[in-house]
Amino acid sequence: AYMFLLKGSVILKGTVVSAWVKTSRKVFGDSVAEAGLQTMGFPSDKLFTPTEEVEDSKVKSFISFLSGKSGKPESEIWKLIGMDNIVTFAKDYPAFFKQDNLYSFLRSMYDVHVVIASRIKGAKPPLVSIKPISDYVAQMSYESQRGMFDYFHGMLQGAAKHFGENIKVETVEKTSTKTVINKSRRSLIMPVSRIN
User: Fold this and answer.
1) What does the pLDDT read at residue 49?
2) Helix axes of 14-28 and 74-92: crossing angle, nearest 10 degrees
3) Structure confidence by residue, pLDDT tens digits, 147-186
4) What is the pLDDT of residue 6?
5) Residues 10 and 146 sit within 8 Å (Cβ to Cβ)
6) What beta strand segments (E) does 24-122 contain?
7) Can you give the pTM of this predicted structure?
8) For a Cys-Cys bond, which of 10, 41, 161, 176 suits 56, CB 3.0-4.6 Å?
């Protein structure tokens, strides 16, 4: 997620909020997503511009609303959104997904986030890094001031599905702003150590 700090508030850019709303429409239906937009103080047909700033508190109220309507915990809502956002991002940004496998895709995310931070003033996307620790296991770190780990896990599951890989994820470290996981392949296509 693209995050900005303004006078003590956490701000998100419209690009990512728009993707979350699009996913919510698909997963929960238009009427629920539209009512959720209204809880954020927006009209039900709101379209977010890419550079529009949206307060974190509004996004939290939207997720809370979806949780209440669906009976699912907020953590599950974030995972669902993360999983489906990969589908949305693959359609909207196909060049990022022109990778041979999941490991290569995840490795490229660090560079993508560096470019985002350099092109969008004030952007503070999460820091994502991955390194191989054995032939079939990689360690991945996701650092975010917002601690959106459920969203990250959903995106990771969605990316694995996109690349047709079956993975196992084990959390080895977690703080309020960082999670470190071991990702291993269960359906082995190519050993991580052979990927350049």
Assistant:
1) 83
2) 110
3) 888 999 999 999 999 999 988 888 888 888 777 777 776 5
4) 33
5) yes
6) 53-55
7) 0.81
8) 10
